[in-house]
Design goal:
alpha/beta; 8-stranded mixed β-sheet; 4-stranded antiparallel β-sheet; 18 strands; 23% helix; binds 2-acetamido-2-deoxy-beta-D-glucopyranose; signal; Carboxylic ester hydrolase; Carboxylesterase_B_AS; AB_hydrolase_fold; carboxylic ester hydrolase activity
Length: 393
């Protein structure tokens, strides 16, 4: 029986990217000797190959000399990192895996689209950008933010999966590794997924018609959950035991996913922490009116939604977010107690791709939702940071 012998980089080859398309990833299959040659990550146009040991007990997953794992999903190959929990158990992290086409150009404010496969090995060893948002007064993040991260104790396992949806008032939030380290979950043999979704005006603009029906942020969450359903098995996760969990806007999102036909069958349990579709902050009213009002602040003067959205597509992200902040501040101060959100989930008009239409409480009363085990609660000291900021007024 071959052991998992480890070999090091032996040569690098310069290849035009186009050529790589036709070249198989595995160059040589001297499997009898336990060695195959594997492409390694380089910046195009350079591609390299190194010899690595084949772990014969594996199902085709390979490990490199430095123990950094490479796995293959239908979109391509992914290299992650080997990490340790604070309890000293080992796990593998794959950060910044795309699940959607970057929502730029014509795709800004459009329903999400699945990403294309990639050539070569995806570098998933570090966090990628968060979605555009204001952080301490400056715009951070990038529009190319539709990525998710997976942490797994063992990518050959069949573990239950927990998918985290971040909170942040549908205006801020990140799935970055160091913000919500999953150490305690991983120690319980769970595969952990953290997804990004678009927020603020970029995720929740709605014109109330087919031009931009709204809820794109939630639609990205649904696309990411479809990814989990299809691909999590390659990371050692069981696609039939998926729990979604999240706090604040994350909890609100989960309530809507439980109500939505579009998310049916994509998860099997939910944990809603301090958020529901029935709370004031969970529903944005009069969204089309806001879309046009903000348009005016951007000097887009029209009553036609196609013209409005077409013009919105030309505005720089920094300008969009500045105007969003001005508007949100005004809005927040005008209704400080119930604090509805200016950009959040909306009741879409009736159409087949709507996440939800009509009143949530009626939908729940009618029993029109997924009957799955749900834990609903609140995070202690939830409003702490808010009380601090209210002292200013
Ligand atoms: C992967 O990306 C990280 C972060 O950008 C970078 O530091 C690292 O060098 C990259 N690794 C390779 C092999 O390109
Ligand atoms: C809105 O503008 C689009 C694009 O210019 C045009 O095709 C459409 O007819 C207009 N709709 C209305 C209701 O005026």
């Amino acid at each position: 029986m071959q052991s998992n012998n480890i070999f090091v980089v032996i040569f690098l080859v310069k290849f035009p990217v186009g050529l790589m398309k036709e070249s198989p990833i595995v160059l040589d299959s001297q499997i009898t000797s336990g060695i195959i040659k594997e492409q390694i990550i380089m910046q195009p146009p350079f591609y390299g190959f190194r010899e690595i040991a084949l772990d014969k007990s594996s199902t085709g997953n390979l490990r490199l000399a430095n123990d950094n794992p490479i796995i293959t999903i239908p979109d391509g190959q992914i290299q992650g990192t080997k990490e340790q929990t604070i309890m000293q158990t080992t796990f593998y992290a794959f950060r910044g895996i795309p699940f959607a086409k970057p929502p730029v150009g014509d795709l800004r404010f459009a329903p999400p689209k699945k990403n294309d496969p990639w050539i070569g090995i995806l570098n998933a060893t570090a966090d990628r950008d968060r979605c555009p948002q204001i952080n301490s007064g400056t715009v951070v993040g990038s529009e190319d933010c539709l990525h998710l991260s997976v942490c797994t104790p063992d990518y050959k396992g069949n573990f239950p999966v927990m998918v985290e949806i971040y909170g942040g008032s549908f205006e801020t939030g990140t799935s970055n590794f160091n913000s919500y380290r999953p150490d305690y979950l991983l120690a319980k043999d769970v595969v952990y997924v953290a997804l990004n979704y678009r927020i603020g005006i970029l995720g929740f603009l709605s014109t109330g018609d087919m031009v931009c029906p709204g809820n794109n942020g939630l639609k990205y969450q649904i696309l990411a959950l479809k990814w989990v359903k299809k691909y999590i098995k390659y990371f050692g996760g069981d696609p039939n035991r998926v729990t979604v969990f999240g706090q604040s806007a994350g909890g609100v999102s989960i309530a809507y996913l439980v109500q939505s036909r579009l998310a049916k069958g994509l998860f099997h349990r939910g944990i809603m922490q301090s958020g529901s579709s029935l709370c004031a902050a969970g529903l944005t009213l009069e969204a089309p009116k806001r879309a046009f009002e903000i348009g005016e602040l951007l000097e887009i003067k029209t009553t036609n939604s196609s013209v409005l959205v077409e013009n919105y597509r030309q505005v720089k992200v920094t300008d969009l977010l500045s105007v969003q902040t001005i508007y949100t501040t005004k809005f927040f101060l005008s209704d400080i107690l119930t604090r509805p959100l200016p950009f959040g989930p909306v009741q879409e008009h009736h159409h087949p791709e709507a996440v939800f239409s009509g009143n949530s409480y009626e939908q729940y009363l009618k029993g029109d939702f997924q009957r799955i085990p749900l834990m609903i609660g609140s995070t202690s000291n939830e409003a702490g940071p808010l009380i601090q900021s209210l002292r200013r007024y």
